[in-house]
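[agent] plan:
  1. take the single chain provided in the ticket
  2. run structure prediction with default settings
  3. attach C-alpha cells to the ticket
  4. add a short note for the reviewer (M.T.)
[agent] executing step 1
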Amino acid sequence: MIQNFTDYLDGAIDVAKGLCAIGAFIYPPAAPVLGVIAGVGVLVQLVIEMTKPDDKLVPVFNKMKELEKTIFEVQKKMRAHFKELRSFIAESEFAADIITEASVRMKLMRNCLKYPTREAVNSFSNANEKHSALKLVYMMISFLEQKSTNPLAMAMEADKSKSAATFHKWENIISDLFSQFLFIEGFASGLLKDKCSYDWDRIQDRSDEVFKAIHNWKRAYGLHTYWDDASEYLRKYAQNTTRLTNSEKADEIRQKLQSYATDDVFYVIVFNHSNNENHLYYKIKSENRDRLLHYTGARGTNFLIYRRSISDEIDISKLIQDVRTKMERFKTLRYDDTVPVPPEIKNEEFVSGAFSLLIGDLDEEIRWANCANLEQGPGWISDSFWFGGTCNRRLLIAPY
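[agent] step 2 finished; step 3 output follows
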C-alpha cells in the first residue's frame, strides 16, 4: 500500500527543489501540485499506522527527510527576504498573527516528515483545529481589507516616494503566504481529511479575489504596468485555451507580447505539466522573480514567460556567446541516468545566468519575442541532448 504513494513523495521533492531554486513559494500552486502534497500527507499517515518496522521502507524514510530538508531550505531563503523589512515587520500586527503562524505550521508539517510519529501528527492536527490554513487566510484577508492593518498600505504610506520596490516587496510576501497556506492545506487534506479539497479550493478562490484587489491598488498608486496586464492576460488565457495545441498557444502569447509598447525581450515556454525533474527543472535568481510569470491552465498545460530589459550598457552578444561556449562544454561531460539534473547545471559556478531551464518530453514549445536582432532571444537554447536522467532535453540559459 505504501509503495503506491512513493510517486507522490518523488513529485513533492521535485516541487520543493523547484521552490528552493527560486527561493520562495510561488502563487498559485497548480491543482496537480496540491494533489501531490496531499498524497504525501496520506503516506505519512500510512507509515504511522504500520504495526512493525519494515527495512524495505528505509528509502521512503530517507526521501521524507530529503523533502523536509528541502522545504526547510526554502524557508531559510524566505526568511532572508523578510529580514529586508525587519524593522517594519516588527511593528506589524500582521506579522505576529500571520507570518509567525505560517512559519509555525510549516515547522509542524516538517516534523511530520522528519519524525513520522503519532505525536508529530497530533501536534500538527491540534494546531490545525485551533487555526486551520483556511481560517488563517480569512484572518489575513481581514488585515488586508482595512487600511490601518494592511501592511502593504502602511508601507506605502511610510514610503514618501511610493516606490514600486516597496510595493513589490509586500506583494511578494503576501503571495508567499498564500502559497504556504495552500501548501499546508494540501498536506493537511491528505493527512487528516481523506484528500478532501474543499478548504484548498476556498483558499484558492479567496486568493484570486485578493490578487485582483492588489492589481487595483497598483493602479491606484500609479504603478500598473504592461507586465501587470500581461500577467492578468496570461492568467485568463491559461484557463480558456484548452482546444489549441501547445504550438498555437505559444504563437498567440508571442503575438500578444509583441503588441506591447516596450523594449523588453521575452521567452515564452508552453509545455505539459510535470513535477518530475527528469522532464522539467528551472531556476531563477530570487532578485529576478518579478521577471517571471508561471501559470498552470486547464488540463495541466503550463505557461512560462521570462522578460528582460535591454540595456545599452550590457554587451548582450558577448554574454550569449559565453553561454553558447558553456553549452558546448556541457556536451563533453559525462552524465548519469540516475541523476535527473546534473550538478554542473545546478551549480552557480557553471550556470550563473538570471534564468535557466532544462526541459524535455513535455510537448514543449519555446518562442522568443520582441528581439528580431537576437538569433535565439535573450539567451541560448541547446538542441535536444542527453544531460542525464531518463530522456533527452533542451537547455535554455538567459545570461542576464
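[agent] step 4 note for reviewer: Strands lie at 265-272, 280-284, 292-296, 301-308, 355-359, 365-369, 380-381, 394-398.
[agent] ticket updated
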